[in-house]
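[recover] target loaded
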C-alpha cells in the first residue's frame, strides 16, 4: 500500500525491488507515459503506460486482515530463525 504521494491509498503487488536505490516497482502504481519509436517489439510505436519506481519508504505491507501494518523481526521458536511479523496482528509475514 502506498502511504504518501500522488498514489496515496492505492494497493498493488510488488513486481521488482532495487535495493541499491531503495526503490520498488508496484503493479498499477505511479504510472508514467513513455514515448516509443517503432521497433520490432512494437511496430506501431506510440505512447505506452508503464509503472515507475516508488521509494520504499512510501510503501507499507498489507497483513492478512487487509490493513497496512508496520513490520518487525523476531526469532521464531519452532524454526530458530529470524522472521518478519505484523506489529498490528502479531502474525508472521511470508
Amino acid at each position: 500500500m502506498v502511504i504518501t504521494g500522488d498514489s496515496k491509498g492505492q494497493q498493488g503487488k510488488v513486481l521488482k525491488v532495487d535495493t541499491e536505490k531503495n526503490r520498488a516497482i508496484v503493479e498499477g502504481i505511479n504510472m508514467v507515459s513513455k514515448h516509443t519509436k517503432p521497433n520490432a517489439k512494437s511496430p506501431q510505436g506510440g505512447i505506452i503506460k508503464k509503472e515507475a519506481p516508488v521509494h520504499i519508504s512510501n510503501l507499507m505491507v498489507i497483513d492478512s486482515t487487509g490493513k497496512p501494518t508496520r513490520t518487525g523481526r523476531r526469532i521464531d521458536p519452532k524454526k530458530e530463525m529470524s522472521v518478519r511479523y505484523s506489529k498490528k496482528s502479531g502474525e508472521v509475514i511470508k
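[recover] notes: The longest strand covers residues 31-36.
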